């Protein structure tokens, strides 16, 4: 009897986790109460799955919700500079926030496109072509991202 | 002069947006389940686009640039249609590889002419140089 309860509950939790991870991408969702690790003895063995579901959901929520700490100007600067440093064609010594990609860091326009692709991957939205050609320094990118985040009503301090 | 400069800069924008389009394609490449791994094919798309675009980056004749833009667009459309990013292997004309060793200049030209327009970058003398 207990075994059957456990398997049924685990299936629904897994389905819920999948549903929530999809929904959280598009909007702010509240994780249903019975998916939280409850003190109920029967579901305590499934806490592994529910913890995983919570972790995944909260990971997505962290980037998608307005109250998260991940979108202040400092955080954006940090993330942008990390992405740029990871780009192999840039030497980390010459890199500053105001260094021009083409003139000082020696990138060509194709490398510039690849760099902006990496930033799009990091922040999760697309940068249109007309905006992309104006982003020639890390500071331009940071300013642009702040503006975009503001448009989406995220916090940018 | 200004007309050619304007056309060159608009060509430049088209080339960059094509490159961007190819990289976006590579991001969401579906692959063929059971036959081809999407990650390998996506990596192929990125490296191939990178080498081919960089190989021709110092071209200045607008007509030649236009033909290469057409080549890129054909490759994109073919990849989207067949879901295969690799170019289709062309048929060699008969008698090309009959003589052993390096093919003679006439046969090499024949082999080049057998390549379709969308494989213009693979012709002899256009060997991709990877820096």
UniProtKB/TrEMBL annotation, chain A:
**Which domain of life does this protein belong to?**
Eukaryota
Q: Write out the annotated subcellular location.
A: Mitochondrion
PROSITE patterns hit by this protein: CARRIER
Name one matching Pfam family: PP-binding
Main location group: mitochondrion
Describe the family membership recorded for this protein in Swiss-Prot or TrEMBL. Answer: Belongs to the acyl carrier protein (ACP) family.
What name does this protein carry? Acyl carrier protein
What organism, scientifically named, is this protein from?
A: Macrostomum lignano
TrEMBL record, chain B:
> Which superkingdom?
Eukaryota
Q: Where is the signal peptide?
A: none
InterPro entries this protein is in? Answer: Complex1_LYR_dom, Complex1_LYR_LYRM1, LYRM1
Give the matching Pfam families: Complex1_LYR
Q: Name one GO cellular component term.
A: mitochondrion
Complex 1 LYR protein domain residues: 13-75
Instruction: Give start-end ranges for the coiled-coil region(s).
Output: none
Assigned protein family:
Belongs to the complex I LYR family.
UniProt xrefs under PANTHER family: LYR MOTIF-CONTAINING PROTEIN 1
Q: What's the protein name?
A: Complex 1 LYR protein domain-containing protein
